[in-house]
Amino acid sequence: MEFSIATILSHLSQDKLVAGKVLEKKLGCEEPEELEKLQIALDVLEKVGVVTKEFGKYRRVSEADVVEAKLRLFE
């Protein structure tokens, strides 16, 4: 299944930790290639500070000066 950063973040909360296996199941990642892409995306999100990893589980990081929004492009 194809997923986006927005989809990953929609399954993460600022309050609760979510296991990687739970994310895999929610995003429909079954193939080894999909699992690798998800892990790469989570690693990048962690490096840029959007997601934190604690005890092997993930949660979103709350930042006071960041506003969550959706960007839509029309042609």
Structural features, described:
This protein is an alpha+beta fold. The chain is 40% helix and 13% strand. It contains three helices and three strands, in the order H-E-H-H-E-E. It has a three-stranded antiparallel beta sheet with strand order 1-3-2. The two termini are 26 Å apart. The mean pLDDT is 89.
TL;DR of this structure?
By secondary structure, this protein is an alpha+beta fold. The chain contains 3 helices and 3 strands, in the order H-E-H-H-E-E.
Quantity of strands, as a count: 3
Head-to-tail CA distance between termini: 26 Å
Number of helices: 3
In the sheet with the most strands, the strands line up as 1-3-2
Give the DSSP E fraction (strand runs of 2 or more residues).
Answer: 5-15%
Helix content: 40-55%
Please give the radius of gyration in angstroms: 13 Å
List the helices and strands and how they pair.
Elements: H1 5-10, E1 18-19, H2 20-27, H3 32-47, E2 51-54, E3 57-60
Salient structural properties:
three-stranded antiparallel beta sheet, 3 strands, 75 residues, alpha+beta, single chain
